[in-house]
Amino acid sequence: MLVLDTFFKYRANEITKLEWEDFIDKRDKRLGLDLDSSQLNYLLMDSLVGMYDQAKFILTIRDCYSWLNSYINHQINYPVVNQRWTRIREIRFQPEKFVFSKFEKILEAKGLYTLEGYLSYWARHNQSVLDTVPTERLFVLRTNEISKKTKELAAFLGVNERSIEANRNTHHRIAIKRHNILSQVDQSYLEETVEKYCGNLMGSYFIHIKSAKDVDI
Fold first, then answer.
1. Does a structural domain hold residue 9?
2. Is residue 177 part of a domain?
3. Is 72 exposed, middle or buried (0-12, 13-18, 19+ CB in 10 A)?
4. Distances (CA, A) of 54 to 127, 147, 148
5. Which of 45, 57, 166, 208 has the fewest CB atoms in 10 Å of its CB?
6. pLDDT band per the 50, 70, 90 thresholds, residue 175
7. Phi and psi dihedrals of 39, rounded to 5?
8. 187 with 106: CB under 8 angstroms?
9. String of DSSP letters for 51-101
10. Is 60 exceeded by the pLDDT of residue 173?
11. How many domains is the chain built from?
12. How distant is the alpha carbon of residue 107 from its chain centre?
């Protein structure tokens, strides 16, 4: 994929910031989208905020337990065969930094990443959006409230509420098979790791969720 290949070059200082932003601008003009919901936009975020001062951003945030459980199921169900995506996962979950503890042997056996790797990324991803995008240009939307927030979202975007199809394909990537991996991890270690990396954000956006028991996973 062109975005990933160009991002890797930029990250390795093989192209300049000017060249990176020229690539982004040409991509934007070529696609001509009113709404761009690609997960890869996170890689472009700093530049998007600076380059397009009229652009608005929506951060869809899911509680860390549900997100982690879903991601693990997806990773097992759909093994990556593309080296680009393997590289992105390693950038995200930092296997060179985090080693498996004695409490997460099941993750290691399944070829997954550490809890610290996953959960530090969850926190880093969401917090960096909150820190980077100006408050007046950012709408934070909990995924479990999408269908309830269409009026507020429409007002933020300046569009008719009827143009927002909140229930269409919102869960089209639900895991075909669930593997119950998190239930096989030491729960005390899971909670400690969540608190270490995700405690602040979970306390701000999901105050009712105190442990994995409070989530249907």
1. no
2. yes
3. buried
4. 22, 26, 26
5. 208
6. low
7. -65, -20
8. no
9. H-TT--EEEEE--HHHHHHHHHHHHHHS----HHHHHHHHHHH-TTT----
10. no
11. 1
12. 20
